[in-house]
Write a structure and sequence with these properties.
single chain; alpha+beta; Neuraminidase; Rossmann fold; 3 domains; eight-stranded mixed β-sheet; four-stranded antiparallel β-sheet; 10 helices; 37 strands; 15% helix; globular
């Protein structure tokens, strides 16, 4: 029976505890013998990252061990395994590499004790364990290289046994050895470029003491390299404005395009280990293509065939085995998970882990792609309307909406199902997720709209999307909130400072002072702002003008600020400066500092508290009484 209730007050079975349980983080998957292994966080254990295998009830990696890399601060590629079931992983607490023998319960170290060293992007190939090493010295710029870690544990007592294979750039990623073991290929880039601005695919002859005769095979911005079984090098590049595939022999200076398309095969290298394509043993190629949403294709010569797959969001190719493809991703109706599909069999993809809705689909919104006209061209977004199996709003009432500004700011959203979004939509609060100018997934020209214009284009696009969407009648223009984390937090503050489009704002560890970000941030992003704003301190006046803190006196709407106490990217001081500015002027606000949390909330308790506080904040700002949530008092 349908019940008529105001938006925001619909009773929902989706709790904040469900959100915490339904949103684990993943770090890759692989075929290991006849099994599939993957890494997944356990929110109830403080968010520790454990390694699981298909069919087992308990994780392979026992507590308290946690696989987590801090290379580039964002990590990735923190584990690998061989075909007999040995697990190799980076322990989060000390950043050393360990081995867990097949059937063992106590890992043993493979790298020496060195507080300055971090490892990530592990790749086990041709009997060698490759990794990206990051060493923090007295210099403000860490040293990074591709290394070979001996499997016999000899490096524990002899650090020199960890062999440096490739260096010569500020950053390295994606090391891979040729089938005959004679060459190494990898991705390299240096300051001031970010990897999506300019990065090289390099290849060299692999010797006992490293790599020599190195040459660059890409022209603009490579994102991944891989070898074919025949010994050719496959890589992505974007000289045409789209990340497409290219093929070259190790000694050939003329790469040729492979099935070019008006779509991207590749994405921003925020984390190590990301893969968007793979070569099968018979020469065919499987690849992810992105143009707003994702699809999987099989390339045979010049023929391109779409592979039936129920995933359209954040799709990655984790591993291949013969004609079997292991992929990760989600869709508008399927949460993130891992799937196996055989491109030679006419069978449905098989789910391995994740990918199961914890609630009946009638509780979940199905996103739809929407776009709006802006002064710089189209603005892309995904609409998640209020959705409930039995509740409806009174006739004539328009729904309140939360407009999301993603982090990065070079990132991408693609309409996947989200438990936290469903938490709000099931209560009668819609969500509009915006890919403002600068986002990936729409080609180089779209992401370069933000060049030199962060704090302008992103804010313009979010404001434009919100007001245009409300003008269609789909949302209540008096009840629009803006929410974002990290770089998205800067967009939140800026949008609140630019008029009255939004009547409330939620910032999670948002950037408030760009000068502080420029001087205090970690090395991976140390020159990021050069391209987004300008050189610091040469362009300090621009940094001051674009900083939300400079114009905090223009914020009149209520603000909720959520912050991790141990955040190395956006330290608490940034959030506290905004808090103090709001308090000085008597603007309604609430500030919550979470001990032990970093850049992104991990523990179950924090996720629950933050989710419930956001709903309570919107209720206080918009004047409704949500079902089962304690009220929030403004400071």
């Amino acid at each position: 029976m349908s019940e008529t209730l105001p938006y925001g007050t619909w009773p929902s079975i989706i709790t904040a505890a469900d959100v915490a349980a339904a949103a684990p983080r993943y770090d890759g998957a692989a075929f290991v013998g006849n099994e599939v292994w993957w890494a997944q966080s356990i929110p109830s254990e403080g968010g520790r990252m454990a390694v699981f295998r298909d069919g087992a009830d308990t994780p392979l990696l026992p507590a308290p061990w946690s696989a987590g890399s801090r290379v580039h601060e964002y990590g990735g590629g923190a584990w690998a395994a061989d075909e007999v079931g040995q697990l190799f992983f980076v322990e989060k607490s000390d950043q050393r590499v360990y081995r867990l023998a097949a059937g063992g319960d106590e890992p043993t170290p493979l790298t020496p004790i060195d507080p300055a060293a971090r490892f990530g992007g592990l790749r086990l190939q041709r009997g060698r364990l490759l990794a990206v090493r990051e060493v923090h010295t007295s210099s403000p710029v860490p040293e990074r290289d591709v290394v070979d870690i001996p499997l016999d544990g000899s490096a524990v007592d002899d650090p020199a046994a960890v062999t440096s294979l490739a260096a010569g750039s500020d950053f390295v990623a994606c090391p891979t050895i040729s089938p005959d073991g004679t060459r190494l290929a990898w991705i390299a880039w240096s300051h001031p470029s970010m990897p999506w601005d300019a990065a090289e695919a390099r290849v060299g002859i692999l010797g006992a003491d490293g790599v020599h005769d190195v040459r660059t095979v890409s022209r603009t911005c490579a994102t991944q390299v891989a070898w074919t079984a025949a010994g050719s090098l496959l890589f992505t590049d974007d000289p045409t404005g789209r990340w497409n595939l290219y093929l070259t022999s190790p000694d050939d200076d003329a790469p040729r395009p492979v099935a070019p398309a008006d779509a991207d095969t590749g994405g921003p290298l925020w984390v190590l280990g990301s893969r968007w394509f793979a070569a099968l043993d018979d020469g065919r190629i499987v690849a992810v293509r992105t143009n707003g949403t994702d699809e999987l294709v099989l390339i045979t010569g010049d023929h391109v065939q779409r592979v039936p797959l129920p995933l359209t969001s954040d799709v990655h190719i984790e591993d291949v085995d013969g004609s079997r493809i292991l992929v990760s991703g989600s869709s508008a109706t399927i949460p993130t998970g891992f799937w196996v599909i055989d491109v030679d069999e006419n069978t449905a993809p098989q789910r391995v882990a994740g990918g199961v809705l914890p609630w009946d689909p009638s509780w979940l919104p199905v996103s739809r792609q929407v776009s709006f006209s802006g002064e710089r061209g189209e603005i892309h977004a995904f609409d998640y309307p209020p959705t409930h199996p039995s509740a409806t709003a009174p006739a004539g009432e328009r729904p309140p909406y939360v407009v999301l500004a993603h982090g990065g700011p070079t990132s991408h959203v693609s309409g996947g199902v989200s438990s936290v979004i469903a938490y709000f939509t099931s209560r009668g609060i819609g969500v509009l997720d915006v890919n403002y100018g600068g986002s990936t997934g729409y080609g180089r020209a779209y992401r370069e709209r933000l060049a030199g214009a962060w704090g302008i284009v992103d804010i313009d696009d979010v404001l434009n999307a919100a007001s245009s969407f409300a003008a269609t009648g789909a949302a209540d223009p008096e009840r629009l909130a803006v929410k974002g984390g990290s770089a998205g937090g800067l967009t939140v503050y800026g949008a609140l400072e630019r008029g009255t489009t939004f009547s409330a704002g939620i910032s999670r560890y948002g950037v408030a002072d760009l000068r502080t970000l420029a001087t205090d941030t970690h090395d991976f992003e140390a020159r990021y702002l050069d391209g987004l704003i300008g050189r610091f301190p040469d362009d300090e006046d621009v940094y001051i003008e674009r900083s939300p803190l400079t114009h905090a006196d223009r914020i009149a709407a209520p603000v909720l600020i959520l912050q991790g106490a141990d955040d190395p990217v956006v330290p608490p001081s940034q959030s506290e400066m905004i808090r103090d500015a709001l308090a000085e002027r008597g603007v309604p606000h609430a500030y919550v500092l979470y001990p032990g949390e970093s850049h992104g909330f991990r523990s179950r308790e924090t996720v629950i508290d933050a989710t419930e506080r956001e709903l309570a904040f919107l209720a206080a700002a918009w004047g409704f009484d949500p079902d089962g949530i304690a009220p929030l008092s403004f400071d």
